[in-house]
Each structure stands twice: as C-alpha cells, then as structure tokens.
Amino acid sequence: MWDLLEDTSLFGRPAGDDSEYDAHVHLARMVSVLGPPPEKLIRRERAYRKAEISLPVYNARGEKFTNMNKYWGGPFFTEDNQIYRAELVRDGQGLSDTVTELAGREKEVFLDFARNMLQWLPEDRMTAHDLLRHAFFDSLYEDRDRILQGRE
C-alpha cells in the first residue's frame, strides 16, 4: 500500500552492511513504525529457536538450515525482551508519520485500515473478509451502488 500511495516501502529497504536482506534491520524498522512487539510474540520467537523443520532450506550463500530462526539470522530478542540491534530503531517515527499523501479523515481511515493489518500477532489482524467491510472501502461501495442504480 505504501509503494502505491507514497512511492516507498513502509519499512524501507531492510539491508545490512553487505546490502543483503537483514531480518534484524527489518525488525528494527518494524519497531520504529509499530512500536515494540508484545511479550507473546517474543515468547514465540524463543520457542522457535529450538524448532527443527524436516526439509532443510538453503540461503543465498548455499548454507543449509533446519531451523528457521537460524535461517533468518536469529535470535532476535535479548533476555530482557529487547531487540538485538536496538540502535537501528528510529525513535519518533510512528505509522502516521509515514503517510504524507493523505490528510484529515481520509488519512485517519487509511491508517485505521492499515493498523488492522499491521499487527504483530497474526491472530490480532483483521481477516480479509472483515477488511472488505472497513470504512476504507465505503466510497468504492458508494460508487458501485451509484453505477448499479444508474443501470437499472
């Protein structure tokens, strides 16, 4: 959505010093925009540190992994529930600050729509079915109804 609206990625290009994707950079950018993740997510990350997968995966360098936490470069959280590489977190930049092309009610509705998807825990995210009923789509439904009424 940010690519279309703002001509930029919401979390930028999360690359490390080697210009390759870096999950720690990505996580820090997410924390910058969304705030810190809930403890429940941190507990899940800790549990996945030990979880093995049956079919190995290989990274771009050809290294073999049977643990996705290691594949992505984990662990990601310290013992005191902070992210590693916390120095990458950009303070003072919330989700609202990332939207410059909208204002007023239009911006509020867009941000509410986005926040319903941008939840740390998957079970907290709105379903696609529920998102289709969000006020973000009201004008589309009004246009559709107006067009359909004109054809009757």
Could you characterize the architecture of this molecule?
The protein is mainly α and 152 residues long. It has 2 domains: 1-90, no CATH class; 102-152, no CATH class. 40% of the residues lie in helices and 3% in strands. The protein contains 7 helices and 2 strands, in the order αααββαααα. The chain has helices at 2-6, 23-34, 39-48, 68-71, 104-115, 128-131, 138-151; strands at residues 57-58, 64-65. It has a two-stranded antiparallel sheet. A hairpin with a 5-residue loop joins β1 and β2. The two termini are 34 Å apart.
Quick recap of the structure?
The protein contains seven helices and two strands; from the N terminus they run H-H-H-E-E-H-H-H-H.
Descriptive terms for the model:
CLK_kinases; serine/threonine-protein kinase; mainly alpha; transferase; 7 helices; 40% helix; 152 residues
* Low-pLDDT ranges: none
User: Rough shape?
Assistant: elongated
Please give the largest β-sheet: 2 strands, antiparallel
Count of helices? Answer: 7
Helical/strand content category: mainly alpha
Break the fold down into its secondary structure elements and pairings.
Blueprint: H1 2-6, H2 23-34, H3 39-48, E1 57-58, E2 64-65, H4 68-71, H5 104-115, H6 128-131, H7 138-151
Antiparallel strand pairs: 1-2
